[in-house]
Design goal:
Number of helices: 7
Largest sheet: 5 strands, antiparallel
Shape: globular
Order of helices and strands: HEEHHEEEEEHHHH
Bound molecules: zinc ion
Distance between the termini: 32 Å
Radius of gyration: 16 Å
Number of strands: 7
Strand content: 5-15%
Helix content: 25-40%
């Protein structure tokens, strides 16, 4: 399931290689940068360029442009970036503010946080394109994070 399928325009179909780590980046709509960059960084973007998100957790570059090798790190954004920041206060689901902490708490209480999130997504309430630094649906990250909690639990037993 992808909540932002309707926003998957031609920009997001493009790929580029991160100039810092070489990983394949995901193409973004410019609105994602416009929403999430702090003012001093926003003042330097070239809206006609295609920007990409680097998902590599061991790379400091969050956004890059293939055209002028422009890069932005986490401090250029208004929000912490899930893929680049392992703190518990960082959102996994940005739209509905499910931080690692909150997901961990819900998981520990045997609640089903993913079902809550899916319900809002299915009701078309999410806005990943302007809230989530990756510019796309968070559900994959939420599922992966909950799975990692599950695996940790199994290891403890
Ligand atoms: Zn990178």
């Amino acid at each position: 399931m992808d909540c932002c399928a309707s926003s998957n325009n031609r920009e997001t179909a493009k790929t580029g290689r991160c100039p810092s780590c070489g990983e394949k980046g995901k193409g973004l709509s410019i609105i994602t940068l416009k929403s999430l960059l702090i003012a001093s960084s926003l003042e330097t973007i070239e809206p006609d360029n295609t920007y990409f998100f680097c998902p590599n957790s061991s790379c400091n570059t969050v956004y890059f442009s293939g055209t002028h090798l422009q890069t932005f790190e986490e401090d250029a954004l208004k929000v912490p970036v899930f893929q680049k920041n392992s703190s518990m206060h960082v959102p996994v689901c940005y739209c509905f503010n499910w931080t690692r902490d909150r997901l961990f708490q819900a998981y520990s209480d045997n609640l089903q946080p993913i079902e809550h999130i899916k319900e809002h997504v299915q009701s078309n309430r999410c806005g990943c394109e302007v809230n989530n630094p990756q510019g796309a649906c968070c559900l994959g990250n939420v599922t992966a994070y909950l799975r990692s909690l599950n695996e940790r639990k199994v290891e403890e037993i």
